[in-house]
Amino acid sequence: MLAIMKEIPDRLTIGELSARSGMAASALRYYEELGLISSTRTAGGQRRYARATLRRVAFVRAAQQVGLSLDEAREAMARLPADRAPNAREWSRVARRWEARVEERIAELQRLKERLGGCVGCGCLSLQKCRLYNPGDQVAERGPGPRHLIEDVPLSS
Amino acid sequence: MLAIMKEIPDRLTIGELSARSGMAASALRYYEELGLISSTRTAGGQRRYARATLRRVAFVRAAQQVGLSLDEAREAMARLPADRAPNAREWSRVARRWEARVEERIAELQRLKERLGGCVGCGCLSLQKCRLYNPGDQVAERGPGPRHLIEDVPLSS
DNA sequence: CCTTGACCTCAAGCACACTTGAAGTAGCAG
DNA sequence: CTGCTACTTCAAGTGTGCTTGAGGTCAAGG
Q: Any idea which of A3-17, A125-139, B15-29 has the lowest mean pLDDT?
């Protein structure tokens, strides 16, 4: 189990990287074109990726989940070594920026969740009167309904 | 303050809706084309929106944040009345589906956050040995670094 | 009434993130 | 050495979510 693992080769073909990362080969070529990942070439011109590339691809996927563009992901990764795993110092520099972003996004969603569930959750079914979600009572609309759950964010800045 | 509020008219022009929703007028026309919102027309053919449309636009924005496409947003809103605020029953039906989605997304991000902060946060700087993030010790790569923070999700399904 | 700014339609364009297709080459198993 | 699959490049196409521009009309203040 230790000796004969001809899987996990040192340099991955694009097909192997694709299989292991879950990204289409075309997407990986695209990423390389954008400078998100890099490869060496064989004598015949085929790409070979360092295994660390797997981590970079995963990083990109994660970045996209947080709402970063590929360009922003590239910027973030510029601080990480391309060909080896990052050390603690390198990693924490990058991770800290990320955490802020992730937390921001989590907070955003939690606010949304509150607005969604609030009135229904608070059990007040005569929704017009709910001070919690009708602050200042400045709702001028007829008809029942949890007006302030989703509505009219001023955006006055 | 109650009498002379000629703001908050009953039917909004596209410009007013744009200003109050923060969406460009072109985007609102696009939404209307897709059936996300609707309008009546003046004799001259200009759009006039019910104020409830403001809520629908906000709903769309929120939906996008959660990762829904405009098409999915339209589907979700199909269960809400187009021209008035939803009542509690109508609202809770829709909100419940949403909450699941939002929570799912929050959970996703929190998992990501843990993977990001984990090793750095746990204070273990000789990262090779960290059992927490190096489970089973099956890492075959040279060099230091928090390998399992971001790497090689098998995706074997 | 007249001007002016907000509105109208329709077609085209754009940015992002890829995918697809054509035509050809590399590399490995037998 | 053959044959087959995985690879190569380059150009063009796709889907989503809009924006822009041309050419024209509406509606409200002066």
A: A125-139
